[in-house]
Every structure is written in C-alpha cells, then in structure tokens.
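# nightly structure sweep
# worker-07 picked up a monomer target from the shared queue
# config: single-sequence mode, recycle default, output format = structure tokens
# input follows
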Amino acid sequence: MANSTRSLAALLAATAALLPACSRDDDDDDAAPGAAVPAGMTPKLLSTTSVQTTDTSTDGTWVAWSAKADAAANSQIFIQKATDPLAPAAITPATGWIDGGDSLHELVLSDGLLVWRGWDGSAYHIYGYDLTAAAPSIVDLCGAGTNVNCFHTRGRVAVWSGGASPTVYIYEFDTATLTSIPVTAVSTAPYPKTDGRFVTWMAGTWPVFDIYAYDLQAASPTPVKLTSGGWNAHPVVDDGIVAWYQDVSGNYEIYYADAKLAVPAPIRVTNNAVPDEYPQIDGGIIVWSASDGADTEIFYYDTNAASPSVVAVTDNTTSDGDWPSNPRIHDGLIAWSGAVTGVTGGEIFYYDLQAASPAVVRLTDNALDDRKPRVRNGSISWVADGETYAARR
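# output follows
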C-alpha cells in the first residue's frame, strides 16, 4: 500500500460525513449465499490492496491496524478515522516487528490511546501513541524493561507483563506513572487486563491459577485475590466486574466477581457439559461463545438483571464466534464472525441490545473471509483477506 502523502496533522484534523445510522432490521445468520445484507451499518474498506492485515482495533473514532506490505516484510501500524474517505497514515517505520506475543491482540486502541508490542532489534517493548495529543508521537512505555509480553489498555491506562521474574506493569498515561507488581505466575503469562481503574490478571503455579484484582483508586492499592484455588484463566474487567473461566471437573465454566465490593465473591454464570471460555464484558454484560452440543453459538449474561440468566443470541446449524473471532461487546453492541451455510469464509454479524427488538444482523455478504471483529463506541472493525474494514452505527 502506498503511504499517505499528507501529514499526520492533516489526518488528525480531517473530518467526514458519518456513515448511515444502524438499522434495527433482522437477519438470519444461516442466510443463503448471496442473500442481501439488510440496510444498516455499511462496511467500509480502509486499507488498499497488497496489504496483509493481521489485526485491527477501534475506539469508535479511529481505526488502527497492523499490516505487512508483503509476506516477507515487517509489520507497520496504520491509523484512519472510521469515517475518513482519505488514505490511512502510517505511524511506525517499516522496520521492527509488531507482535502480540501471548496477548489476544496485536494492538489495542481505546480512549484515543493506541498501544502495541514491538521489536526494536534487540528486545520487545510496549509502545503508546496518544491520538488526542496536539502532536502525537510514539512513546516507549516500558523503557529498559525486558521480556515484555501480553498487554491491554482501557481508560488511558496500559498494562502488560514482563521482566525476568513475572511482573505486571501498570502505566497511567496521563500522569506518566509506572507501577510494577510482582506476581507468582511461574507457569504462565499473567494476561493482565484493565478498565482504567481496576487491573486484573491470573497468577499461580500449574495446575492452580488464581484471579487477582488491583484498584488504582484505592487509598493503599494492593492485589486482591478473587478466587481460592483451582484452575482459573483469562480474566477481563469492566467497571470493576471481573469475568473469567474456570476448570470445573474437566469442563470450563464462566464466573465473575465485583471487585468494588469490600469482600468480592465469585458467582457462577454457566453450569453445563460444554466448555465456556474467553468471556468479554462491558456494562455488566458478559458475552462468550460455546457449543450447544452441535455447533458454536453466542451467549450473554446480564449481571445487572433482577434475575440474571444465560441468553442465547444465536441458534442455528453453523458455528458462531469460533477462535480467533470470539464475540466482543461494547455499549450493548455484540459483534462476531460466523459461518454461513454454503459460503466459504466467515461473515461479520452483530446484535444490538439497545435496539427496540434486538435481533441478529448480518453485516457482511461477500466472498471474503471476514474475521476478528473489534467493537467500541458503536464502531466495528475487522479483517478480510488481508484488508481492513470498518462500520459504525
């Protein structure tokens, strides 16, 4: 892809008309090949040809992605407004290697802060790029830190793990404050996540891994253990509610706990004979994909409900939300990639809990492999056959 000739400052200042508003039309995720996509969100191609996109992220205003000019090239990071009709701008040189390591992402964009893990020729570092700054620049968040690994950002707080001894690092971007917390994760990476106030991670020695939470706003912040033994993994957090999955007698089940409480207690969400794993959470709503005994379906659980229960979003004969296209949620908008009978490659679907009558909507209808959707503030970004696409409410 040819690099944009305009300056980044011009890109930051660019404005464009909004894409059409999201409709509330229904659609069948088992639709026949070639079935018309309902009026609503409109997929928009952001990258151009000859770019091999590996991951995307969006904060609702911007879309960022990592890409290669060809299979042998190193990765670069590109940014563009979701509504911008102009060419994207590269913010990293065509040297170095961008790699998520053990993270579930290669880059994460939230609240105007873009974070990624990159190779500088001798070691991996965690980098930040503040799109809200008057003159954005790449900032090395970890400095001389070594062996940096999985990372995440929300609320302008970046977290990652690394060091010769397992350590969780917390960088508060607006105050340039770096906090390090030694952990006991000898057998695995801690996989830290944050919502901007709370940080959560897993730690322990095989086969026992516990879930921890750390409140940045506490008078004397200290790690709080949310579990008491067992195999617990991949916590996520939003507004202090931490969700994870646990091995229960050889089967994975979803749990959550409210870290805002004086004494947080795990609450079991699922209780079935299939593995429920890799939950995501926003606004107290937990989403995940799991088998219904025949194929993979999408489910959610509203922790705010008077009588919470597991709700099936999809119920069909094809797989929805298989790795690495697990369902994502933000602001009531659930997005995932699913299969369609008779069609090669995945398609992107969404389900808007804010709709008057929520229903599954098929966003893409093409001959591409649409996968790895990310959602934030009404925008969805994804990759399809090496290109970057986005749509918004």
